[in-house]
Specification:
With 63 residues, this protein is an alpha+beta fold. It is 22% helix and 16% strand. The longest helix has 8 residues.
Length: 63
């Protein structure tokens, strides 16, 4: 079974962990509704890249 030769220092451990932090998600603004949403995802209104792609329950109530 492998055993490390020497102990990792806190400095080395910190340098390794420096890349582990979470990045903020990329957000996009829909040109039609102006709503902010995650990139490559549809907005809550059912729009993707300015086009209506799915019907939402709010649309059914208005019609």
């Amino acid at each position: 079974m492998p055993v490390q030769k020497s102990r990792r220092t806190p400095s080395t451990r910190g340098m390794r962990r420096a890349h582990d932090k979470l990045k903020t998600p990329a957000l996009s603004k829909d040109p039609t509704t102006g709503e902010t949403h995650a990139r490559h995802r549809i907005s809550r209104d059912g729009y993707y890249r300015g086009k209506k792609v799915i019907e939402t329950p709010a649309d059914d109530a208005e019609a």
